[in-house]
Specification:
Helix content is about 35%, strand content about 20%. With about 190 residues, the chain is α/β, with parallel strands linked by helices. It has a single domain, classed as Rossmann fold, CATH 3.40.50. Strands 3-2-1-4-5-6 form a six-stranded parallel β-sheet, sandwiched between helices. Helix 2 packs antiparallel against helix 7. The radius of gyration is 16 Å and the shape is globular. InterPro entries: Cyt_trans-like, NadD/NMNAT, Rossmann-like_a/b/a_fold.
């Protein structure tokens, strides 16, 4: 039997919103992927640590958002790895842990544009496939035509976690921007105020 193809969708998910969910669901249902795992980053090497919500809260929000969704999973794999976490290290670790899975990277066109700066970018391109979703105003650059890269017609989402956090802080109604269960969790814990 062929290995299951798992798309890895890395992010802070601070908080997760419908844009993330639409991308993940598209990838799980309109590409050759069997599942999509939301890999919640404890700390992105490019982001200030203090601006991140508690990683366990962010993981819990992902779990609440995808409850009952077939083909979508939350992963805390990076919580257990040395900080800061680099994608190549996570990929190698996952391959050892799940030898009967094939891992594929999911990324936005904005990330593809800066991909050459990533740790071991050449090895990732050699050993893994990358499925890319469009981002408004970005062009994937030279890598768009790379044999390891697949561009998709994922619906374009301009919604961002920054926008959501700002709206919460300003007391705006953000129903439909994030799943109701996530909204309840944010309210209950008083996050992003």
């Amino acid at each position: 039997m062929a290995n299951k193809k798992i798309g890895l969708f890395f992010g802070s998910f601070n908080p997760i919103h419908v844009g993330h969910l639409i991308i993940a669901n598209y990838m799980a249902n309109f590409t050759e992927l069997d599942e999509v795992w939301f890999v919640v980053s404890p700390q992105n090497p490019f982001k200030e640590k203090k601006s991140l919500g508690n990683m366990y809260d962010r993981l819990e929000m992902v779990n609440l958002a995808i409850e009952g969704a077939e083909k979508l999973r939350a992963s805390d794999i990076e919580f257990k790895l040395p900080q800061p976490s680099y994608t190549i290290d996570t990929l190698v670790h996952l391959e050892e842990k799940y030898p009967n899975r094939d891992f594929v990277l999911i990324m936005g066109e904005d990330n593809l544009a800066g991909f050459a700066k990533w740790k071991n970018a050449d090895i990732i391109l050699r050993d893994y496939r990358i499925i890319v979703y469009p981002r408004p105003g970005y062009d994937g650059g030279d890598l768009k035509d790379h044999s390891s890269v697949t561009m998709t017609d994922t619906p374009v989402m301009e919604l961002s976690s920054t926008f959501v956090r700002k709206a919460i802080k300003e007391g705006k109604n953000i129903k439909f921007f994030i799943p109701d269960k996530v909204l309840e969790f944010i309210d209950k814990k008083g996050l992003y105020l």
